[in-house]
Automatic annotation (TrEMBL):
GO terms for biological process: DNA biosynthetic process; mitochondrion organization. Coiled coil: none annotated. Residues 26-140 form the Band domain. This is Prohibitin. Keywords: DNA synthesis, Membrane, Mitochondrion, Mitochondrion inner membrane. In the plasma membrane, cooperates with CD86 to mediate CD86-signaling in B lymphocytes that regulates the level of IgG1 produced through the activation of distal signaling intermediates. Upon CD40 engagement, required to activate NF-kappa-B signaling pathway via phospholipase C and protein kinase C activation. It comes from the Eukaryota. It is found in: Mitochondrion inner membrane.
Length: 144
């Protein structure tokens, strides 16, 4: 009799453990300041951006890709030339964040490390144009 009870409790415990494991793998958390894009193995990246909180997904079919959407600083040291052929050392601090509605497009075209791929080239170009523009402004005589 006691062995029958232990066998029943064991089967019930095993069943609960399996159900709990499936439910646990179907839940994911999106922290404050983050957003998620869902990658589906059959349909690809979905166009829906998931907000903060606890959400469901289909285990082993869908995978959440988390993005940090808070403003983050990045320091970029750049050596550029001025109009009078002098080297100028400038450290530029950039505060950036992704556009939340464009996260699926950012993930499909650039990837999760979009800041490492995009920011260095953009900052170098813009900084050089600003240095050239400022050197022109400072060299112009004032008209009174």
């Amino acid at each position: 009799m006691a062995s029958k009870i232990f066998e029943t409790v064991g089967k019930l415990g095993l069943g609960l453990a399996i159900v709990g494991g499936v439910v646990n793998s179907a839940l994911y958390n999106v922290d404050a300041g983050h957003r998620a894009v869902i990658f589906d193995r059959f349909q690809g990246v979905q166009d829906i951006v998931v907000g903060e909180g606890t959400h469901f997904l289909i285990p082993w079919v869908q995978k959440p890709i988390l993005f940090d959407c808070r403003s983050r600083p990045r320091n970029v040291p750049v050596i550029t030339g001025s109009k009078d052929l002098q080297n100028v050392n400038i450290t530029l601090r950039i505060l950036f964040r992704p556009v939340m509605t464009q996260l699926p497009r950012i993930f499909t075209t650039i990837g999760e490390d979009y800041d490492e791929r995009v920011l260095p080239s953009i900052t170098t170009e813009i900084l050089k144009s600003v240095v050239v523009r400022e050197s022109r402004i400072r060299q112009c005589p004032l008209l009174l």
